[in-house]
């Protein structure tokens, strides 16, 4: 299944629910749901959203089949919620903080409660282990991840994302087990400004060259 086909499947699934309609309970309108503070996560409803809307790209358990789409299994719920909100144009803004037409369409159909529910579901899933694929760059990737690059002003990734890449809930995402090609693509996007929802990551990524990005991204894939 290629990426375009997957995207069409996701959009079709999201459209089936109707943009502007909440997926929470599949009945309450988004405007009504978002007027209230999100309740405690409902993992069962989150699973329903994941299965019917997210699975085509991210897999039903959040372990996507390839690097075109990130793994969401085991990711911090708070981080997933933030990213979903960043895909939506917020009041007073001209565009979403994170630009992706497919995800903007999907996120726009979710209420705040839907986001909390689906994020809690993916966070509860177990990430399938991954591994570094290029033995020739492991040493460089390890050096950057654990010690940074002092003469470029690049801090150690581990300082924020932890020694084993598990991150810190609310503040920093889990990286452990993520597809290396996906991580490298995000570092490039931060560097070029095409992903602009983290100023610190833009500053750090812009100091790395392509070889350094690929090396540290591949190393990260094997962290556990």
UniProtKB/TrEMBL annotation:
The entry's keywords: Electron transport, Heme, Iron, Metal-binding, Periplasm, Signal, Transport
Positions that bind heme c 1: 54, 57-58, 103
Residues where heme c 2 binds: 157, 160-161, 201
TM annotation in the entry: none
Keyword check for Transport: yes
Subcellular location: Periplasm
Protein name, UniProt field: Cytochrome C
Annotated signal peptide: 1-32
Main localization of the protein described in the UniProt heading: periplasm
GO terms assigned for molecular function: electron transfer activity; heme binding; iron ion binding
Entry comment on modification after translation: Binds 2 heme c groups covalently per subunit.
Coiled coil location: none
Gene Ontology annotations for the cellular component aspect, listed alphabetically: periplasmic space
């Amino acid at each position: 299944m290629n990426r375009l086909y997957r995207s069409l499947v996701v959009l079709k699934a999201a459209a089936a629910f109707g943009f502007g309609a909440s997926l929470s309970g599949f009945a309450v309108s988004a405007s009504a749901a978002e007027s209230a503070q999100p309740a405690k996560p409902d993992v069962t409803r989150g699973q329903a959203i994941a299965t019917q809307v997210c699975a085509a790209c991210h897999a039903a358990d959040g372990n996507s089949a390839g690097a075109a789409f990130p793994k969401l299994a085991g990711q911090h719920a708070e981080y997933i919620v933030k990213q979903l909100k960043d895909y939506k144009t917020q009041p007073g803004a001209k565009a979403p903080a994170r630009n992706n037409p497919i995800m903007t369409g999907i996120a726009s159909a979710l209420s705040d409660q839907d986001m909390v529910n689906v994020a809690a579901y993916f966070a509860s899933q177990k990430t399938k282990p991954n591994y570094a694929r290029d033995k020739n760059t492991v040493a460089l990737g390890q050096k950057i991840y654990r010690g940074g690059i002092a003469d470029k002003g690049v801090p150690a990734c581990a300082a924020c994302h932890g020694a084993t890449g598990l991150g810190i809930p609310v503040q920093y995402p889990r990286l452990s087990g993520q597809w290396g090609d996906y991580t490298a693509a995000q570092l490039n996007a931060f560097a070029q400004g095409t992903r602009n929802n983290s100023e610190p990551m833009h500053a750090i990524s812009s100091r790395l060259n392509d070889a350094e990005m690929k090396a540290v991204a591949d190393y990260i894939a094997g962290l556990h």
